[in-house]
Amino acid sequence: MRRPLALIVLLALMAAFAFGVNRFFAARKTTIASAAAPTEVHPEVALPGTLYLAQRGDIYRLSNGTFTDLHLPAGIGTWMQPAVVPGTPDIVAVARTAAYSDVYLIDGSNGKILRQLSHNKTATVTIQLWHWMFWPHVAADGNTMVVSYDAPKSGQSYEIDFAVWQGSVSQKPATQQWTQPYSFTGGDVQPLPLPGGRLLYAKYQITGGNVFSQLAMQTNALGDIVYLTSAAADCAQPAVSPDGGTLAMICASGTGLQSTSLVVAPLQGTKLGTAHAVVAKCMCGAPAWSADGSGLGYLAPADATGHFQLWWIAGASTPRPAAPKQVTTGLDFDATSPPAWAP
Fold first, then answer.
1. Residue 277's domain spans which residues?
2. pLDDT digits 0-9 by tens, 99-134
């Protein structure tokens, strides 16, 4: 009789202990506040020009201290990575679905879709032959476009390594392959067209099992590569000031992206001057220069929610940049979508 009774008591004690542990952790559970819609808040810092930012699959315009939802159709996909079309009120942006993404031309003043520039869901039922296209940017001529594009592809593999392709707004966004990516790295991303037909982008590589990125420049399609940064610096996400004289970038410097730094350096042709961090040991991303060159915007968390807010550094290209200022609170911008800045 004693043995069954002891077993019952032991099981009861175990149940009570498990319940107590469950309640202990439940009492310490943190509830992350939901992000507000940008249209519900006002920026804390007045910024020059007009910005386009992505949050929760939609794109918002920030102008004169007010956010406006472009109300892009959710049925097309998740909207991200807006970029200005110079000399026009238009933007290009990516609509991402579960199996492919496309680039669209959009009227930045009202959100009207003007044209679908790519058609990456092909007629084939072989899904790995559908395509992904990201990071569109339009050159100063308002027509030449570069994108990261996962072509050519094989129906025998699901490997995706992006190459940089060049095309145009007026015809197709990807008609000529410019770079040759390293296999199994993710490839060549975040391309920027520069004056004189040059191309700047982030090139991912693997050495000794470690993946890293270097900023690379080319002057012609599939031509020689000039590296602007070292493998140890592990830099990506380039942004060039409007006058072409300063490069901003995000560098991990061997931290494995546990922390990053927002770094700026003088840019002369294919050479960088002395670099310095304007924000160190952060989770910074998506740098973008204002259209007038007066400062630098970027995205970074501001609190324990981990939600990415917009920040601003006035005079970022000068020897004495101002301290970073938090522009938004309570939002959650897409950190893979740098702000697009129009005059």
1. 48-53+232-343
2. 999 999 999 999 999 999 999 998 888 888 899 999
- Give dist(CA 294, CA 319) in Å, integer: 13
Tell me which DSSP letter residue 187 carries: B
Domain count, the chain: 1
- Note whether 46 and 65 are within 8 A (CB): yes
| Amino acid occupying residue 4 | P
What CATH number is given to the structural domain containing 244? Answer: 2.120.10.30
Instruction: Decide if 128 contacts 159 (C-beta within 8 A).
Output: no
Question: Does residue 304 lie in a domain region?
Answer: yes
274 lies in some domain = yes
Contact 82, 89 (CB under 8 A): no
Say if residues 295 and 271 touch (Cβ distance below 8 Å). Answer: no
Q: Which residues contact 109 (CB under 8 A, 6 or more apart)?
A: 89
- Whether 271 maps to a domain, the answer reads yes
> Do residues 315 and 321 touch, judged by C-beta distance below 8 A?
yes
Instruction: Quote the radius of gyration of the chain (alpha carbons, Å).
Output: 23
Residue 167 lies in a domain: no
What is the tens place of the pLDDT at every residue in 254-274? 776 678 999 999 999 999 999
* Cβ atoms within 10 Å of 278's Cβ, excluding its own: 21
